[in-house]
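Homework help thread (please don't just give me the answer)

Our assignment gives two proteins as sequence + structure token strings and asks us to describe the second one. The first is just a warm-up. Here they are:
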Amino acid sequence: MSLAVKPLLPLALSFATPLLAQQQPPTGDDLRTMYCVEVIRSQIELQHHLIASADAAAASASTPALRQQWITTSAELLQGLALLEQARYRLQTYMLPRIPALDPAALAVAVRAGLADSQSGDPVLLIRASGCQNPAWLPP
């Protein structure tokens, strides 16, 4: 390498390195997945509260029939919780390796939208959020 080229090599690498490390915009599936991770997280949190309430109601039930009804409700909620946790695992397994290469600002917008929609009382938004329980857009 000639002496004239040697000083240019570090300069060229200093320009190339940020280009190589530049983050890509997320795809529609990436944004939907991040949205759904937050929706499912919120649903799991709600499910835990519902299970605790059902267990408390069973413990203080006034009749054996009412107690059994609350126990059955709690069991159904636990089954729902297991399904939500499976969906969350699938979403996270897809996204975790992708996150470092993606623009974090766009991902943050998707997460905030998921949180807002999951806390909304708007039926349209709640229907969209319920689609997160079966992430059919992800590869098997």
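The one we have to describe:
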Amino acid sequence: MNFVRNHLFFRLFFLACSLWLLFPNSALAIRRARGNCPSGYKPVDTETLLNYGRNLDLADRVTRESRFQIFSLNHIQRGITSSSARWTSGRSGGSSIFSRATLTPNPDLRNGEEEEDQLRKFPSPLREAATRGRTRVYRQVAPDGYGIVEVYANNVLVRTHRVTATSAPAFYDAKVTNSSTGPGSSNHQARGFVDVLRASTARSDLRTFPILAYLTTSDTGVGDSLVSFASVNRVTIWQSFLCELDGVSRPIDSVARFAMSQPVILNPDLVLEQGYSVGILSVPRPGTFSLFRTDDNKGVPPPGGS
């Protein structure tokens, strides 16, 4: 009997390893959200978020996800800021580099309109090639937010990498899912993001990198394959996830109940290979927005993302 039990165990173990090799972005290889909640807060997963919205009579899942998109963009609206220091061999001094990626919600509308055709979209030949032959061919990407990247050397602004019609140095995208995001997810959306970001002038600037930041629930993973794909194209991947007050009873629609974690870089080796150390200085915006109350989000149109 012990022989049969042990034999069955090893067969199941071998099967699990085989599935991991065949499907690296499956549930067997999900990379959970990384980082830490602010002090006094705990992570919020997808099911918890959706249940909160359901309790507030937001029956439509799309509406609940849209509220999270707006909330997360508001909290990270200061963008992502990081500092690095490179010390030159044989010298006592070095270069102190400070880079800041701003965030503009997409669409950036001033009149409150919410038309699909107002979304700012960026062409992606790589996404088009990957979706060719399907019912719908995706030729563009529309992130939930985008921004410029400013580079400071020893506290002096030395370069600004701007958003153009065909490229951008920083993308932000909100995800509400208990699965892992890979290059081919959502009709090769992430592949398209990286394609556009790698065309930015930030890619050729050795003092900084293009940024792809995911704003997620705590059980949303960023797959190893996406991190590797971004690294090959010299794009940094960042993640910030949803948190709520731990052990404090406040209404679900309270302004101070929810917050986003500090962004974390998932492929720091890109920075380290340049001889820099990296420090993440970003602090998400204080809790001045409610996750579910729409009156806190006036003037901020629902973000896009396709």
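TA reply:
I won't write it for you, but here's a hint about the kind of observation we're looking for: The chain has two domains: 1-30, 31-297.
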